[in-house]
Specification:
Helix content: 40-55%
Shape: rod-shaped
Radius of gyration: 23 Å
Largest sheet: none
Length: about 100
Amino acid sequence: MRRLEIAGMTKDGLEVDALHPTYREIYKVLGENSDALMQIFDEMSGQQVNLPVHLYEPDRVKEQLVKRVKQGEAINVNEAANHYGYSRRWIRKIINDVSRKKEG
């Protein structure tokens, strides 16, 4: 059986020009990886996906910070805020709360 040949089609048969705009963006983000796009499509098509503003979950970040403070690690607030994507004020509050409990 002869496969349909269309301009803009990848070697594995994906018609990039005909993709839904959402899938086209995902395809680009994935480095134009057809296999990865098809995995996402197979696993998640039909689902509504909402991507949170923060990559890291606040409760887990807090757990990590608490653990580090309890181990006596000095935490650079600016670096932690940049790494986790939360405000310096929020990071500082967690560190201060743990430090106060440690002293008290």
